[in-house]
Amino acid sequence: MNKIFINDLRLETRIGVYDWERHLPQTIRLDLEIALPSDKPFVSGKLEDALDYAAIIARIKSFAKDNPHPLLERFAEAVAQIVVTEFGAPGLRLRVAKLAPLPGVKEIGIEIERTA
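User: That's the sequence. What structure does it adopt?
Assistant: Structure tokens below.
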């Protein structure tokens, strides 16, 4: 399976169940491995045959900015559905982490895999 990956994508969003989390933007980190729908870009060299990772990043940033979620799980599921349904990816692995969410903790997160 051929994939593209996007590592260490950092976004500002409001995410969490506690009052302070819902009112303060937090930085979260995303790592994505996105399955390619075909081998066409390896032969053609054309962007229209590939997944446009810049467009994927822009869409995820826009979503994170405008859609607060109480749980990382729900946020991760929504991002996965965007990549699969809007960009036609046959599947992906996604890690979402809150950075320094609690004293003494570097990160807390979730990892999911989805297929179309």
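The CA atoms of residues 58 and 64 lie 10 Å apart.
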